[in-house]
Amino acid sequence: MATIYVTGHRNPDADSIASAIGYAELKGRLDTRNDYVAARLGECNAQTRWLLERSGATQPRFLPHVMVRACDVMQSSFPITSVQAPIREAGLEMARAGLELVPVVADDGALVGILTERALARRYIRETRGASTLQDAPTRVSAIVEVLGGRLLTGDDKPLSGRVWVHSMDPSRSGASPGDIVVVGNREDAQHLAIERGAQLLVLSNDSDPSDEILASAKERGIAVIVSPLDSYVSGRMITLAAPCGALMEADPLTATTEFLVEDISEQIKESYYGAAVVIDPQRRPVGLITRSDLVAPPQRRVLLVDHAEQAQSVAGVEQAEIVEILDHHHIGSIETRIPVTATFDPVGSTATLVVERFRQAGMEPSPTTAMMLLGAVMSDTIILNSATTTERDRQVVEYLERVLALEAAEYGREMFEATSDVSEVSAEEIISRDAKQYHASSGHQICIAQIEVVGKALLDRSQELVAAMHKARESRDLQLYALMVTDVLSKGTDLLVDGDVANVARAFGAPAHDSQIELPGVMSRKKEVAPPLLAAM
Question: Residue 244 carries which DSSP code?
Fold first, then answer.
């Protein structure tokens, strides 16, 4: 199943979080082919935390970005070999998988290197005409038995590092010396000579069983004897293929974690001679493989946007993602899609209203926890149905949720605002960024409008501190204007604090400015009553 993240905007408020939870639940019921996951782009504010606790809903997972990660493109099915495994086994696995390398792991499963086709080629395509040797890759007797498919008649399972000889003619002309490996047929004279010269392993080809005398002599000198079903040439060649992978592996391969950004590793993959990276878990165990071919047209991550359509408010990397749908109650923003998608921009007071309407259109009812979240979101965004953005559809949704939950919505809304309106201990920096939205003005510049709902005027005693924090944020983010709406839910009005062209803002609202403060009686909606005149003035 493909994962589709349902996410609201950065600095998420109650509507953003509840809509993500609610729409993910509905889409998951309607479309069982995909996995819809509610996500958040930042820390939940006090009001949203209160709603989550009151409703019993689970806080959505944090989504830092939707850029393509290693786990999105990696091959999860691939061969792995152990450091002691014969290179023949690894080579066969590599060929079957159509790969140019195979990860090599230690006994605990942790990655220690990779075996590449180039390493195998360099071992077997050499300019030397000398005898093959295991000097650079000491090989155990048991590994040679396994590769040959032979029988060990005598000898210990010890590592061998000598040269490999095949006696196919007068054995007196052999260069075999102590510690070497000799492959010979049913010629007893050649077998005797190999033992006399101190060979550590005698391989008898073509299933040639040794005489009792040869076997006894080998036992007396501690020489291992193997009977191979293969002919002498093939037996000699197969012995070198019994070398352990650890001897030929690349010990410092290119690696990445599952969350590694593909764009951060793609160039290294392309430039490496083996053209791949091994994806590892926290214990360094291989969990995936990324090759050059996996970087061709990598799959995009999929997102469904709720409660916003501005790129500056959306998840990092949204321009690289596939947007499958947009459900919003704001203006059409700067989000661009590569293909046509279902996009709803409906002028209601809350995106949660649209989500509830979708449930009812589908003949479904949200779960109790989700219904509680959605009701809180509508009451939050419409400021208990008092905002100028409130519509009859919002009221109908609230009435429906009152019946579903058997509670009184206005009382629930007042309880929510009263429980979360005390910000006396909250820093100015957090207050101005808690529910802040960035907009593109017609001048090409950007402005930021934050809003905080309070009960009473106590917060305005900190106006100088708040304006100073806005000034710092405006300069660091190169904004034309930063405004904070301090909205009193009881008196039903807003005091607008401004850092920037205060006089121009005051003219836009037709109201006098006192230092950096403009009083706006009856104004409660950022979307409908504050953002439009500010954007026009800028």
Answer: B
Domain coverage including residue 258: 72-121+247-295
* Shared domain check, 377 and 460: no
319, two tokens: 């321009």
Structure tokens at 496: 């607008």
Question: Is 127 contained in some domain?
Answer: no
Question: Are the C-beta atoms of 70 and 295 separated by less than 8 Å?
Answer: no
Residue 172 in domain: yes
Both structure tokens of 238: 């197969």
112 and 253 fall within a common domain: yes
Residues 261 and 395 in one domain: no
CB contact set of 152 (below 8 Å; sequence gap of 6+): 141, 142, 145, 224, 225, 226
In tens, the pLDDT along 455-472 reads: 888 899 999 999 999 999
Q: How far apart are CA 15 and CA 278, in angstroms?
A: 41
- Helix-helix angle 368-381:351-361, to 10 degrees: 140
pTM: 0.73
- Percent of the chain past pLDDT 90, that is, above it, reads 75
Banded model confidence at residue 485, pLDDT cuts 50, 70, 90: very high
In this structure, is residue 451 part of a structural domain?
Answer: yes
Pairing of strands 286-291, 276-280: antiparallel
Q: Give domain status of residue 131, yes or no.
A: no
Q: For residue 220, what are the CA distances in angstroms to 146, 147, 156, 158?
A: 24, 26, 12, 16
List of residues 6+ apart from 341 with CB closer than 8 A: 323, 324, 325, 326
What is the number of domains present in the chain? 4
CATH code (residue 283): 3.10.580.10
- pLDDT above 90 for 121: no
Burial of 524 (0-12, 13-18, 19+ CB in 10 A): buried
